[in-house]
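Researcher: Re-running this chain for the archive, since the previous output was lost when a drive failed. Same request as before.
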Amino acid sequence: MLSNNQKKIVLQTSNLLKENSGDLLNVFYTSLFEQHPELLNIKNLGDLEQTEIQSHILSTIITCVEKIAKTQNINKLINTLRQQYTKLEISPEQYEIMGSYFIQAIVKILKHEASAETRQAWETACQQIVDIILANDIDQNININSNNPLESQWNTFVVKSKVEESDDVISLYLTPVNQTCIIRHLPGQYLQLKMFLPSLNKEVTANYSISSIPNDDYYRITIKRAHKEVNTMQERLTNYLYDHLAELDLVALTLPKGNFTLNSNTRDKVFLSGEIGQSPLISMLETIEANNYGNHKIVWIHTSKNKNVQAFKNKIRYIANNYPLVTPIMFYDQIDETTADLAQYQGQIDFDKIKEYTFSNNADYYLSGSKEFVEKLKGDLKARNINENQIFYQEYAPEQ
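Model: Regenerated structure tokens:
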């Protein structure tokens, strides 16, 4: 635990690290790979395409340390770190190695500010973060093993069907080869998927949110084809699944993961999504509809270029027609008269335009989309005095 003096030290030096985050990133990974070139062989970790994720990890660690020094809750940040480590396939065995080089990079960036006391303060704080992550990993493994103790890390699934959801979005219905290899996910969780890509001559893994309602028979993942220049491994794998994967093909999946899940309470639920970010939210919405949760309001707010590229539009309309407490609100770049039966506005999501719902602290807010999308809406909600502990979010860029 940080002493009071150590708390002052990390708070005094954290801003300097943030101001020099680019140099910190470069020093950290350069020295790490020079001394441990074997880490370059770990899927995704040595990928130069992952720079944005790597940068996000370092900034999240610094923010965690600041919150620890201020005795603030870091549970959300810890969950974000765990998800990023999973995406980069960083195992607990690498935590200690990476941690030592992170501290070395901090010392090099701080220069004359890097006294022995400063180094010890950052070492103590970073170790505290690792201890929390490992404790959470142990808890999660206990929960997973208690649900299905025979489960291995990767399991083979077959593509039962491939369904077109819009002009550039498809859903894959995946059923297990071994029926014991499927467990009911929590609405909002994701899967890791692994496939061999012939163009790269190697296996690639990526994360995809489960868009189906929890069930014992299949998982549904919903993906959007990348039309821009393909840069990341996630985009390459996604386009391969979109263009080449066929029914009866096989893929490898992990168990469901993630802490971005639906809360059971009596507050209203407001779902805010951008483009393919609606995937985990549709699982939450269908779960509420199927189980007839309470009598609180459900508000579905989605932004898309137009109705042609919007997935699940018929599903949303069906749920709204049969579940009176659901209010769908759409924001389109291009308004279409054929969607006039839905509340719709032009442009990006703007709370000031919405007349169908009054934003208040009597609701939980679930945000899913790009980093820019999530950050903007978090700011808009906080500007309306929405409590931070009622805002739940998952960022997709640049992975999806």
